[in-house]
Each structure stands twice: as structure tokens, then as C-alpha cells.
Amino acid sequence: MQRSRVSALENVSVRFFLVRLGKIFFNLSALFLVLSFCGVLSFFAIAFLFLIGIFVTIITLGTVFSFAPDFWNNLLSGTAFFADVTNFFVQYRFVFTGVSVAAAVAAIVLLSLDRREKHAARTVFAAIFIVLSLIGAFVAGGLS
Fold this sequence. Notes:
Blueprint: H1 12-59, H2 64-67, H3 71-76, H4 78-91, H5 93-112, H6 120-143
Helix pairs in contact: 1-4, 1-5, 1-6, 5-6
């Protein structure tokens, strides 16, 4: 009797599992790319909070101070929360970047193993995620 040789990738359930795993890694790389840029985005949240205070002061022609004498103190107390969030994201930006790059590489490898269907869009976007993550890491590393 002759045994038929079946490679692991020809097994339908294994192939579907690897493709699904590649899609999950692609989604994880996108999520961690966003998380790696949240440190920079949280600086904009603090600036936006200042702009809100300035606009409220201008729009109400300063009458907000008669209703809330410590308006700026109350408004700026929210910056302590944003500062803590910013500190967290800046402290762990390289971890988020590393996970994003690793997940994107794993997604490219797993999706390229699928011979039944081409995943060109996900592969290209995963490569773009790698480039953006590395650019963000070098820019953030130069700023700190």
C-alpha cells in the first residue's frame, strides 16, 4: 500500500485556520498601530481642551466667570487625566510599535500561504502598517 502524502497546507481545516489567523493578525497590527500613535494624539486632546476653554470664554464674553469663578481651574483639572493617558502611551509606544510590526509580518506570512485566494489588499496594507509603525517609532524616538 502506498500512502498519499498530504501537506499540512492542503488540509482544508488547517488552511482556513491559518487564513483566519492571518486576518486576526492583520486586525491586531492595525489596532496596535493606532495605539502607538495615541501618545501623539493625546497631546492634541490637551490642546483641544485649551481651545474649548478659550472659545467658551470668547463666546460668553467672559460672563462664564461670573457663573463659575474657577472656570479655568475646573477645566484644566481635566488635563491631569490627559497627562496620565499621554504618559502611558508615550511610555509604551515602542511596545505597541513592536507588536504592530510583528503582527503585520505574521499576517503577511500567513496570508501569503493561502494559494486558493489572494489577499493583496490586506498584504499591501500590512506592509504599509509596518512602514508607518517604523516611521512613527523613529519620529517618537527622536522626540524623546
